[in-house]
Design a protein that fits this description.
- By secondary structure, the chain is of the alpha/beta class.
- Helix content is about 50%, strand content about 15%.
- The longest helix is centred in the middle third of the chain and has 22 residues.
Length: about 375
C-alpha cells in the first residue's frame, strides 16, 4: 500500500498518527508520505514538508502566506505524478487539500477525505467541489453523513476519535503533584490555541485576567498545556509575567483539563476535548476585525464551539472578538469555579454530547474504509 497523506493542522497530525497506526496493523510495510507533523513522523511517515509549512491564521491574514502555500501545492502536485500512490488521503485543511484533490482527480488518483470540511458551518459551495473531486468522504459526526448522503457523495461515518482518548483513566491528584500544584486549591486551565498566531493573540488577555480572578476568589492556581507546535520557551516567558502561579507543561492537554476545576479554551478541537472531559469551560477566539466580519457574513451556524453546534444551543459561553476581554474572562472564570449550580447545569448538558459521537475505535474503522476503498 502506498498513500500520499496531507495534514495541515496540529489536530490533523493527531488524526494522521491514529490513521497510520491503524493502517500499519494490516500493512506494516505501507509507504505513507506527504505533509504531516511530528506525531505522524513517529509512526514512520515520510515527509515532503512538515505541517508548519501550511500554517496560516484567518482569512485576511492568509494573503501574506499565499506564495509559500502555492509553492508547496505545486511541489505536491509533482509528487503525485512522481510517486503515483494508490490513493491521496486528505485530512481536513480544505483550502489547500481540495486544490490538491482536484489535481489528483484529473490524474486518475483516488481521493479519500478524512474529517470533512465544515460545510455545514460555512462555505456550503464547497460541497459541489467535493462531489467533483473527492471519491470517498470519511466523517466524524453523524449529521455530516446525512449531508453527504443527500448530496450523493460516497460517505462513511466512523465516530469521533476523541472517544478513545476520553476513555483512558488518569490520576488527577498525582498529575497535580507532578506539576508542582496543590490539590487543595482551585485549578484553572488555559489553552490559547495550537498555532503561534493564536497563542500570541489570546494568551496576553488570558494572563491579564488571572490577577483579576484572584482578587475575587482568593488564592488559586493555573495550568497551561503547551501544544507541540508552539515554542515552549516563548510561552513560558510570557506566562512568567503573571502574578498568579502558572504551571506551564509540555503538551498533556487532556491530563491538564482533567486535573482542573474549569478552563478557558481557544476554539478548536481542544474545546470538544474539554467538553467530553465534562469540565466547565468558556470558549474564546480572536482574529482580525476584517476576517471576523467576512466569517460572520459567510457563517451558516450561530456557534463556533462544536459542543454548542451539537447541542444546537449555547451550553458553553463563546467570547469572540470584542467579547473576549479581561473583564469577561474574569467574570466567567469566577462563575465556573464557584457557582455550583452553573457548573452542574453545564456538566449535565455536556454529558449529552458524548452520546452523539458513536463508539470508540474511529481510527480502526477509518483505516478499514481506506483499505476497502482501495481494494
Amino acid at each position: 500500500m502506498k498513500l500520499m497523506m496531507v495534514a495541515g493542522e496540529v489536530s490533523g497530525d493527531v488524526h494522521g498518527e491514529g490513521l497510520i497506526r491503524s493502517l500499519r496493523q494490516n500493512h506494516a510495510d505501507a509507504d505513507l508520505f506527504g505533509i504531516g507533523g511530528k506525531k505522524m513522523l513517529r509512526e514512520g511517515f515520510r515527509p515532503y514538508f512538515m505541517l508548519d509549512t501550511l500554517q496560516a491564521h484567518g482569512l485576511v491574514e492568509l494573503a501574506g502566506h499565499l506564495p509559500r502555500l502555492y509553492k508547496t501545492l505545486w511541489r505536491m502536485r509533482d509528487a503525485l505524478e512522481e510517486e503515483n500512490p494508490d490513493a491521496l488521503v486528505l485530512i481536513d485543511y480544505p483550502g489547500f487539500n481540495l486544490k490538491l484533490a482536484a489535481y489528483a482527480s484529473e490524474k486518475g488518483i483516488p481521493v479519500i477525505f478524512f474529517n470533512s470540511p465544515q460545510i455545514w458551518a460555512w462555505r456550503k459551495g464547497r460541497l459541489d467541489t467535493i462531489k467533483r473531486v473527492v471519491d470517498k468522504m470519511i466523517v466524524l459526526f453523524p449529521f455530516e453523513e446525512k449531508i453527504y448522503q443527500q448530496a450523493g457523495v460516497d460517505v462513511s461515518w466512523v465516530g469521533h476519535p476523541l472517544l478513545d482518548e476520553i476513555g483512558q483513566e488518569s490520576d488527577s491528584a498525582e498529575f497535580r503533584e507532578n506539576c508542582g500544584l496543590r490539590t487543595d486549591l482551585p485549578l484553572l486551565a488555559i489553552a490559547p490555541g495550537s498555532r503561534p498566531s493564536e497563542m500570541r493573540k489570546h494568551l496576553p488577555t488570558m494572563l491579564e485576567a488571572l490577577s483579576e480572578i484572584e482578587k475575587k476568589i482568593g488564592e488559586f492556581q493555573c495550568i497551561l498545556p503547551v501544544a507541540e507546535s508552539l515554542d515552549f520557551d516563548e510561552v513560558r516567558r510570557k506566562a512568567s509575567s503573571s502574578p498568579v502561579h502558572v504551571a506551564v507543561v509540555p503538551e498533556q492537554f487532556l491530563e491538564s483539563v482533567r486535573a482542573s476545576d474549569a478552563a478557558v479554551i481557544a476554539s478548536g478541537t481542544a474545546s470538544l476535548q474539554t467538553g467530553l472531559a465534562l469540565k466547565p469551560f468558556v470558549i474564546v477566539y480572536r482574529v482580525s476585525p476584517l476576517t471576523y466580519m467576512i466569517a460572520r457574513l459567510l457563517a451558516e451556524t450561530k456557534y463556533i464551539g462544536m459542543v454548542n453546534v451539537l447541542a444546537d444551543k449555547e451550553i458553553v459561553p463563546e467570547l469572540l472578538q470584542n467579547k473576549f476581554t479581561v473583564s469577561s474572562i474574569t467574570d466567567y472564570a469566577v462563575r465556573l469555579l464557584q457557582d455550583n449550580d452553573y457548573r452542574g447545569t453545564m456538566i449535565n448538558e455536556l454529558k449529552k454530547i458524548g452520546h452523539q459521537l458513536g463508539e470508540p475505535g474511529a481510527y480502526r474503522r477509518a483505516a478499514k474504509c481506506i483499505e476497502d476503498f482501495i481494494n
